[in-house]
Amino acid sequence: MSHRRIAAIDLPEEFSPGMSATAEPIFELVDPSILLVDEQYQRDMSPAGLALIRRMVGEWDWAKFKPPTAVLTEAGLELIDGQHTSIAAVTHPGISVIPVQIVTAPEVEDRAKAFIGINRDRIAVTTAQLHHAAVAAGDKQAVAIAEVAREAGAKILHGSPGAGLFKPRDTLAVAALGALIAEAGRDRARQVLAILVDAGLAPIRTDHIKALHLLLTEPDFAALDVEAAPSTIRSMNGTGAADREAKAFAETHRIPRWRALASVWFKAAKKRRAGSEQAAGAPPSRHGAPTVDGREPRPAFGGWQPGRFSRRCRHCDQLFTGAQAATSCEPCACAETEAA
């Protein structure tokens, strides 16, 4: 276990610390049922707020307790912060008093400003930070995520690095990784993450995880060359080509960006058929028809039209590469023409 002491940070010489115009706060044990809420600037209870209160009552723990902040007014003790905590306390049958921080704010404007300051001047805890805390607390799901990431060679950061300068293997996609483990198991999640680590992505994003999982599990993408996938993804990521093509593909076909990214990666990482008549280095079509520079060499006929779009054949329901207007892959178009 490592600790660090709280220490002052360096400030510029011209920096002038603020001086409070009010007295230091005091703490008192208070019956939560006497606390008041000014509805001029405090929000009413939402369904999410009510759910939070029920959870707080059901999981009450003084170690997690944050004292509400209140101010003494002519009407009584008025809350500035801690409405949910106070309602949870008064709802809990075993709680009679709670510690309350009492500050000075004589006017409504002062209290409203204090409310804004308390809720604004804080840094929200990120999903990644909560993950690391959950690992330290021994949460089984968080521990599983951490172990899979470590085994795959990925590094789960606590937050975004300065200036957004991520390094290869870095990731903040905790939720996506957890969802993948829950859906497909640790082995599949480890495989997906290991390929993305080998691809040198910086960072490994949620859409990367979802796209590669789709490629490894959907029958339509069975022709993916898994061994070549890391180098293919690395080269496309280095030029930004994958993201550009995925964005355009997603907008054109009205599909999620991660699905479009899967199609873009697949097009570049399909297996090359040994002994085929295709030109050297040219990607094959879904049904193995010869291709030249990524295009089917045969002219349009029937429902088939050559092109560079990923389409699904209306006859065999398989993916093929053709024109945006194409409705049939080349083999099915041939069969349809012969039958006619």
Structural class label: alpha/beta
Termini separation = 76 Å
Helix content: 40-55%
Quaternary structure classification: single chain
Strand content: 5-15%
Order of helices and strands: EHEEHEHHHEEHHHHHHEEH
Low-confidence stretches: 273-297
What is the total tally of β strands? 8
Shape: elongated
- Output the radius of gyration: 29 Å
Neighbour order of strands in the largest sheet: 1-4-2-3
The number of domains: 3
Largest sheet, described in full? 4 strands, mixed
Number of helical stretches of at least 4 residues? 12
- The overall pLDDT, averaged over residues, is 82
Would you write up a description of this structure?
The protein has 340 residues and is an alpha/beta fold. It folds into 3 domains: 26-120, Conserved hypothetical protein from pyrococcus furiosus pfu- 392566-001, ParB domain (Alpha-Beta Complex), CATH 3.90.1530; 127-233, no CATH class; 291-340, no CATH class. It has 12 helices and 8 strands. A 4-stranded mixed β-sheet has the order 1-4-2-3. A two-stranded parallel sheet has the order 5-6. A hairpin with a 6-residue loop joins strand 7 and strand 8. The longest helix is centred in the middle third of the chain and has 13 residues, at 108-120. The chain is elongated, with a radius of gyration of 29 Å. Residues 273-297 have low confidence and may be disordered.
